[in-house]
Design a protein that fits this description.
It contains 19 helices and 6 strands. The protein is mainly alpha-helical and 484 residues long. The relative contact order is 0.13.
Length: 484
């Protein structure tokens, strides 16, 4: 029997914020499991029915407000299937492909629906959805992507400070930068021209708290030959936020091969990882909040941040932040632990992976199917994916394997008419070297709760990531060792 956890400290000065916190804790207490190691089982069939109903019958009328997010609705649905280990039949795959291609803008990129303006965020969602259901050849979607026009669209919204507008006549948003970087990595569209200035922009979005905001304010000197971007001041706009932080950190990880190829004489942008790690750790809720994550300081826990914040620890580990998550296989691991071993031998001093699983399983599941922010809210496609992806991140140790990267580099074959080969080879091998460490997955409760591992940067399965990148880079990817 779990003991009654302590409520959050209260300074006796009641505000709307403290009222909401107290109310949330009261509700979450009702979802506290009888035993910490026996949470509610994953209602897999109910969640699949929720997703199938939306996909086949159509979304409920309340989704009308999401008319400009049609690629996202499909991506959230398809990737939820993938994380749970379910694939579509060929007929529904083709319907999905045809639907996605109707969103492609005639001038490049994808819009939020047929006839809508091209936008970086639905472009990411459409390309990732095609990674899941698409294929090469006529009608398969992959070869019908107009990459030349897409690249021109990307360059047309690039700003002089390294940022990108999310669409023509729109705003700068670091989420758009992330969406662009994932797209050009998957589709083999990387160029130094496109990447120039992005690291400096990412760095400028980091706030005093350690997390990242949506954008920054550039300042320029008034020179006769034209304005020159100043290194300082370049203040971030807004407070640190879990979604912006994941997108900034994942972008930083993707940029590592590009930064490694820069001349040593150039001053390289850098991030403050100490404050970032502290902020991320502080976003995990207390015991009375069941270990869920919040997205901002003094906000309520929310299931979607299971991925946006919980997914950041694997990214930090890939950058050498000790103890964040994972390891490097330059060093031989100890004997693989059994799946049903206790958690006592796991260093969870930075974040509590078991507690996050407990939050998702006990508070994140809606009784009618689908996953949610928290009770008593309704389930939706967005929270369904990011709760499941967060569950995966908490269960699996996925790390950058130098052994895997060496094998990919060794198998590289120079494609015909190759441009920027050194950059593209480095980014290709870096993106595909993520590996799940065998024997270290920790599934809270029954094995039915287990999710597939997902790519820490792209949020696609490795199978879908490898298939799409192998096609567009014209490479044969070495097979992975079979699990014993």
């Amino acid at each position: 029997m779990m003991r009654q956890p302590r409520r959050s400290p209260h300074d006796s000065y009641e505000t709307e914020t403290t009222d909401h916190q107290t109310e949330t804790e009261t509700i979450l207490l009702k979802h506290l499991p009888l035993s910490p190691d026996s949470p509610s089982p994953l209602q897999r069939d109910s969640h699949l029915q929720f997703l199938i109903r939306n996909l086949i019958q159509g979304f409920p009328s309340r989704y009308i407000s999401q008319d400009a997010s049609q690629p996202w609705l499909l991506y959230w649905t398809l990737q939820s299937f993938s994380v749970m280990g379910v694939a579509l039949d060929p007929n529904n795959k083709q319907k999905a492909i045809d639907t996605i291609m109707a969103w492609q803008h005639p001038d490049g990129g994808f819009g939020g629906g047929p006839g809508q303006a091209a936008h970086l965020l639905p472009t990411y969602a459409a390309v990732c959805a095609l990674a899941i259901v698409g294929r090469p050849g006529p009608g398969g979607g992959w070869d019908q992507i107009d990459r030349e026009k897409m690249y021109k669209f990307f360059m047309s919204i690039k700003q002089s400070d390294g940022a990108f507008l999310v669409a023509h006549h729109a705003e700068v948003d670091v989420r758009g930068t992330y969406c662009l970087l994932v797209t050009v990595h998957l589709l083999n569209m990387l160029t130094p021209e496109l990447l120039e200035g992005i690291p400096g922009f990412i760095m400028s979005c980091q706030t005093y708290e350690g997390g990242f905001s949506s954008a920054s304010q550039p300042y320029f000197s008034a020179e006769p030959e034209g304005p020159i971007l100043l290194d300082s001041p370049r203040p971030p706009l807004g407070e640190a936020h879990g979604g912006y932080t994941f997108c900034s950190l994942a972008s930083w990880v993707m940029l590592q091969p590009y930064l490694a190829l820069q001349k040593p004489s150039l001053q390289r942008p850098s991030l403050n990882f100490k404050t970032l790690l502290r902020w991320l750790v502080q976003m995990q809720g207390s015991e009375i909040e069941l270990g869920g994550f919040r997205g901002r300081t003094n906000k309520l826990v929310d299931g979607c941040y299971s991925w946006w914040v919980g997914g950041c620890f694997a990214l930090l580990s890939s950058l050498g932040i000790v103890g964040a998550h994972g390891r490097d296989d330059n060093h031989e691991s100890s004997t693989a632990r059994e799946e049903d071993e206790s958690w006592d031998d796991i260093d969870d001093s930075l974040w509590d992976r078991a507690a996050l699983q407990r939050y998702i399983l006990c508070a994140g599941q809606h009784p009618a199917g689908g996953l949610r922010d928290k009770p008593p809210k309704a389930a939706d496609s967005y929270h369904t994916l990011y709760c499941l992806a967060g569950l995966s991140a908490a269960q699996h140790n996925v790390f950058l394997s130098s052994t895997r990267q060496d094998a990919i580099v060794h198998g590289w074959r120079t494609p015909p008419e190759s441009k920027h080969e050194q950059l593209r080879q480095a980014c290709f091998s870096h993106s595909l070297s993520w590996t799940e460490e065998e024997g270290t997955s920790r599934v809270l409760g029954a094995q039915n709760n287990r999710m597939n591992a997902t790519h820490p940067v792209f949020n696609l399965t490795m199978t879908h990531t490898e298939a799409m990148m192998a096609h567009f880079y014209k490479q044969t990817i070495p097979s992975r060792p079979k699990k014993t």
